[in-house]
Specification:
seven-stranded mixed sheet; Gyrase A, domain 2; Four Helix Bundle (Hemerythrin (Met), subunit A); binds guanosine-5'-triphosphate; Rossmann fold; binds magnesium ion; alpha/beta; six-stranded mixed sheet; 3 domains
């Protein structure tokens, strides 16, 4: 177990910096209560250390010379019944940049230390208040950009993923114990499972692990949003479409072809799912210059990673060779066919394009007057539903979890093969232990300081 840096008392602003109605400064550690006691003058004349845990106290916050800083409320949580498991004091003061800095500086001058990003949650983990998947869920909860990502984070915070992993662990431990017993007491008749039964149980666990791994693709969309890239030739209204869906003038729009040179990404929410919408440089047959070439390269790179493409054509123009080329380029991908500028007289041969794209009913829109945009959102929602994102079942949302499960599954498969080949039980146990270790690492029962750094550095300060 790495050395734990839990001796210090840490402090940080837990609310966003800037002006606000109130701000909360959180202090955690051995000196939290004594520090508060020194600078907090309670209205009720009783020492904080004498007050029970989970109580709120009104009073005044002062500096070393007893100059008044602010009128505050102090929340008191005593170890072990706090978020971090340590003594915690939360100072609710008025929300001003200078004011909060003054209180924080005072605490630091007098023995507290600035908390690192995520350090409160890291301490909660180190004190066994949360396991690692739950700590990660705290971050996902804060970062959630849509209803579905929020729901996934809540499920994980409530321990649904940990429960499932612990269930795998219990099953594997039973198998392990049986095999170990047969090794230790080879001559005794033990009431153990037959080899057949053991193999079956291993297969069951592997199947469940595999199905959880399979949920990752859906989970990633839930957490990060579905990458939706608008493609089409220049001037068809791609930037206008991004602006219209965002409902603000984000991208430059002009009648000059080639206005957009770089890809531009914004997130919107459609049907409870985050949609990462990308406006791109128009695709053409041949790039006109180097900048054009770079723009097209970037468009293609986004299109390659996209979960959904919006293929945009201009209804006021005839179907062109460029449209044709783009269609053949994107055909293998999941796309929606969208015809823009329907407010203008139409030159597009609808019958022809419907023949060319028989499986995708075109979505008719006008970015200029907003017609068809609601229907387009509905169609995007349908496409997202087809990806299974709206399912309520437990979903993997992090690559770390997926990799740990893959490792567990592979090790389990190896031990199963060894057992099947009737090789020594010791060998079976080695791989079984590797599978168990991968699961233990997933929930954080085994961890390195390095892994914790990677996880908690993503957090903001004060969480
Ligand atoms: N009449 C009409 N004009 C539109 C519509 N949508 C876009 N336009 C106009 O078409 C022109 C091109 O629009 P953009 O949104 O810049 O097109 P783009 O596809 O992003 O163009 P590039 O960035 O150059 O590839 C602008 O003059 C827009 O005002 C529409 O629905 N109707
Ligand atoms: Mg553009």
């Amino acid at each position: 177990m790495p050395k734990l840096d839990l001796e210090d008392t840490i402090a940080a602003l837990s609310t966003p910096p800037g002006e606000g109605g109130i701000a909360i400064i959180r202090v955690s550690g051995k000196k939290a209560i004594s520090l508060a006691q020194r600078f907090f003058i309670p209205s009720r004349n009783r020492k904080l250390s004498r007050e029970p845990t989970h109580t709120i106290h009104h009073g005044h916050w002062v500096d070393e010379k007893e100059n008044l800083i602010d009128e505050v409320l102090v929340h008191l949580f005593k170890t072990p019944h706090s978020y971090t498991g340590e003594d915690v004091v939360e100072i609710c003061c008025h929300g001003g940049t200078r004011l909060t800095a003054r209180i924080l500086e005072l605490l630091i001058r007098n023995g507290a230390r600035h908390a690192e990003p995520g350090e409160f949650t890291k301490r909660a983990f180190l004190h066994g208040k949360l396991d690692l998947t739950q700590a990660e869920a705290v971050l996902d909860l804060i970062r959630a950009k849509s209803e579905t990502s929020l729901e996934a984070a809540v499920l994980q915070l409530r321990g649904r993923l940990s429960e499932k992993i612990n269930h795998f662990k219990t099953d594997l431990m039973k198998i392990y114990a049986h095999l170990e017993a047969s090794l230790d007491f080879p001559d005794e008749h033990l009431d153990t499972y037959s080899e057949e039964e053991l193999l079956d149980q291993m297969t069951n666990v592997r199947r469940e692990i595999e199905s959880l791994i399979a949920s990752f693709k859906r989970g990633l969309i839930m957490r990060e949003g579905i990458l939706t890239v608008i493609v089409g030739r220049t001037n068809v209204g791609k930037s206008s479409l991004l602006n219209a869906l965002l409902d603000r003038e984000r991208a430059l729009v002009s009648q000059l072809p080639g206005t957009t040179r770089d890809a531009l990404e914004e997130t919107i929410e459609i049907g409870g799912v985050a949609v990462r919408l990308v406006d791109t440089a128009g695709l053409g047959l041949l790039p006109k210059d180097e900048l054009d070439q770079m723009g097209m390269k970037r468009t293609r790179s986004y299109a390659k990673d996209a979960g959904l493409l919006l293929f945009l054509v201009d209804g006021s123009q005839e179907w062109s060779r460029e449209d044709e080329a783009i269609l053949s380029e994107i055909s293998p991908k999941n796309f929606l066919f969208v015809i823009n500028k329907t407010d203008l007289p139409q030159k597009l041969d609808y019958e022809k394009v419907i023949r060319l794209i028989p499986n995708e009913k075109p979505c008719l829109i006008s970015c200029l007057n907003g017609t068809g945009l609601l229907e387009l959102e509905e169609r995007i929602k349908e496409k997202i539903n087809q990806a299974g994102v709206m399912q309520q079942s437990l979903t993997l949302t992090r690559l770390r979890h997926k990799q740990a499960l893959e490792e567990a599954e592979k090790a389990l498969k190896r031990s199963q093969d060894t057992l099947q080949r009737k090789e020594s039980a010791e060998l079976v146990l080695v791989d079984l232990k590797a599978a168990l270790d991968a699961l233990r690492e997933l929930v954080g029962e085994i961890h390195s300081e390095n892994l914790l750094d990677v996880i908690f550095q993503e957090f903001c300060i004060g969480k």
